[in-house]
Design goal:
The complex is a heterodimer. Chain A is of the alpha/beta class. Chain A has eleven helices and 15 strands. Chain A starts with 5 loop residues before the first strand and ends with a strand. Classes of the chains: A alpha/beta, B mainly alpha.
Chain lengths: 327, 268
Amino acid sequence: MESKEVVLQTTNLSKRYGRGSTSPLALDDLSLSVRRGEIFGYLGPNGAGKTTTIRILLDLIRPTLGSAAIFGLDAQQHSLEIRQRVGFLPGELALWSGERAINVIRYFGRMRGGLDMNYVRELCDRFQFDFSKRVRQYSTGNKRKLGLILAVMNRPELLILDEPTSGLDPLMQQEFNRLMREFRADGHTVFLSSHLLSEVQAICDRVAILRAGQLKAVEHVETLTQADFRWVTVKVKDVSAVADRLDRVPGISQVTTRHECVTVRLQGDFDPLLRAFEDQYVIDLRVKEPTLEEIFLEFYDDGRAHDPTGAPAVPSEDRVAVMKEHA
Amino acid sequence: MSGVTFLETVRRGWRTMLAWGIGLGLMGYFQAVIVPDADALQEYAELYQTMPELMEGFGLTDAAFGATPEGYLATQWFSFILVIFAVYAVFAGLAVTANDEDQGILNAALALPIRRWRFMAERAAAYALLIIGAIVISGLGVWFGVESTPALTMDTSILIPATVNIIPGALAILAATVFFGGVIRRKGLMTALITALVVGSYFLDFIGRAASESLASDLRGLSLFRYYDGVEVVRLNALQWGNVAVLLAVAAILLVAGLVSFQRRDLA
């Protein structure tokens, strides 16, 4: 359903918080466009400028330089017209804690010119959400569900969602993904920010990668995921016996040894790597997904994703602790 | 949609308004019914005469008037009640935008199709209505008290201008709070400023009245409370339209300035 019609566009958008030119740019010369009918992922680590971009789009804050347009209308000059056609979920949704969810839903509905209670009930059923409670009684996940319902209940032409699935359990994440696909199928557009690659991989058509306020890449998801690789660290009793031969194993590069551990960058299947260790006593094996930055470097730096010191990039987070062989 | 935010704000705020109105109404009621007899009024007046500065601080320049039921109510209720309503007005003013901005609620609320200035104006109007409601309820409390107290035999129609007279001052304080909320993003700072303004304004007026030869007396014109004279309105049984006009003009100017600033600035 992707069309050529641009729904959202930013041109040389910059934002500096605070006064004076010494304060850093939260957003630096951002130019991107989102087409009608696509689910566009806006990906970047915390503090990259995703929320700043979204707040400018909704005219909650004003850009220092540049401009943003939605539906071809300037985001500042025509913010009211734009907001009539946009549904929004903030990254940290705060609502009136003493109010019942149904009252909040009614208020938001009236502000948007009407409310289809049948659709609201359908959404509540899908997300297993009970709207009779007060906002303060909901868990983080349930508040997120309420935020999603508020954002989508008027079937807006454009959905702007800031970290929409944070706090949702896996089942609800799947339901959310289904809902977004339905929106896309109906010709709606979704602009979705996230710091999780897996989240945008699941539903997005295209992805923009933002880092330190700068746009680093805009790619189709399939293209980005082709750069998929992992860091594998194997702890063995005799590391010197395997280090030399690992360089010749298909899919292995950037072999580094430290104490009893050997760390390699693996692209492709595990089998060749595991066979290289078959005469070794493996104490521990850990697999770590690459960071967004590493994927970006992998894709745009011709595969030379590495630390300038020559050491392999140390993944920031253990994703999988695979197995441990007991003595 | 026109008026939706106004109605929603009234819906959310009417219980609090009722609590303030009934609470202060009870206070006014008891202020009246504690008068055992007419002699007690005379004793109050004599007590004031021993402390002329205090008497003038409360706006009482005529001791004989202080010995009447009207004078008693003027000094014991209407002279200071605006200070108490100022607290409600500040709370209401904070609720217009500052509380929601501080908690991040405005990110969702102002992503709805409503202009910022309109959101603020509708909420300010709703809180103005709620404040007026609380003042009217408190006035009814005083009226019940007077009607229940044989020692306070008086024309209760004077309670109408005296009660209405509270409204412009309370609205000015509401508008001042809205103004600070419109200009300043940090709730802590704006709360400190409005508190300093209200407390400072009250003491400037009180000291200025009590010490007529002092600097405070010269500066009284800067105080919002200078334009609220609960005693004189009771004594004359009429609003002082000049003071009302000043307070309403100040309220309008502050509100418009707050709306303009809020429309232009970044949200926190």
